[in-house]
């Protein structure tokens, strides 16, 4: 009977020591038994080490053929610098990947069949995909049959299609990749004319060699989705040549129906970060409930659920770029709980995270983190960069003043000039290529090219927790709480006569503030006014409450000519329930088909004790809607 073998954990110290010895032997050229020849350079190595990490060398040295006995092996079509990186990885386990080396490194690793290097290069490339390189990454992934890279790049090409179809990389796409893109339902285009123009540009880039593809390319255009003006201009009055015959023939043969591209289904929505989650039907410790992300479509009057940020991230900064990219940054995560029973409290840790929202996949994608942890930083987009300004808790007054900038093309963060003062309750907007930061009665303007902050005109009132939005050459500062002189005492209202919300307008050209018409909020008691440019007009989303009444919401629209606010849309309680008081609001265009529709579920306090399926809302008897949890 054999004895049981005692299994012990691997001695990691011995493994590290072994690698160090191998590296020493390689550097000193001790006991080497093969020399790799690349161009004019020689790399003395150990067959055993090369065979361990490379299937290519394993097959070469263990085949039993003449190659296995060679002491010198010449490698063709291999870059010596890249080979040196792979050899260093084989002896140390450390892989140095940069933007400049990743592609040749992938090519060489593919040729030498170094699987781990391939995977790490692939992950690096996938993470680096952006609007500038996505078309090239699509071709690169296709060339090396890397499905993960190819699919990730294709999704970015589809999403950024209106920005990239004029790039040289797009015009040089293979016919097969072009057809795959033009036939996609997921193109983020609002008009089919964009697809038609892209197809024509590709054909005309080299018409002599691509004329054979005329029919297959143009047949991907959803002709009936084109406007009547475009159809008449394109299909009628063409000169009598082979091209016009093909085009007119396609027009006559195409079916008169189409499936809209994904971009044609976009709706501009209000995005609410850190809304309260739907209250459970049984008592729950409040700290266990993580805020959620929802969005509201004013056009459809529907609510949708966005994927929550990773790790139950809270108190983030949010920005939506002009290209409709949604980013969140900073925030805090729960790392522990302490206390007993209902007195449990969460312990939070501030983070420097940075995420981009993939609207097609409804998920958050990790990007290059900020340089500093920040809780509720103010995020703005200005001239191709995202700025993270201040934050509530970043380690003292000096750190609260810090400002850092993210270059969307280079995908890295750098520090810029700090704020003149440390503010907890500031709000920021961008107008005319400059950043304006406001709090109390102060405003500072940041000029990106000069990297300088300049104090601007003071406001007529001193308020914090206000909301701001830039519209044209005007900046609107709305709502908030009054601050009494320098004492820091906050009064519990931002109204002037008890039934309206204070609005001030800053004229950028004149560098002066003026009081504007108040917003007629009849039951306003909390600082829950969120300014936004919605559907090309200045609006506010308001949470109207009084004492212990449940929340009511409404969207007001500003008429500049009349200097008046009009109730644009009351938001039914049966559509949007209580978001809490700490939610933040942004505006972005999203795809309803890619989101989870959030059916309204009445809170438990509306139900009668006898369990009846009817309850009263606003004096009406309402039946309990069908809801699948």
From TrEMBL:
Residues 32-99 form the BTB domain. It comes from the Eukaryota. The keyword GTP-binding does not apply. SMART domains: BACK, BTB, Kelch. Keywords: Kelch repeat, Repeat. The keyword Repeat applies. This is Kelch repeat and BTB (POZ) domain containing 2. It comes from Neogobius melanostomus. The lineage of its organism: Eukaryota, Metazoa, Chordata, Craniata, Vertebrata.
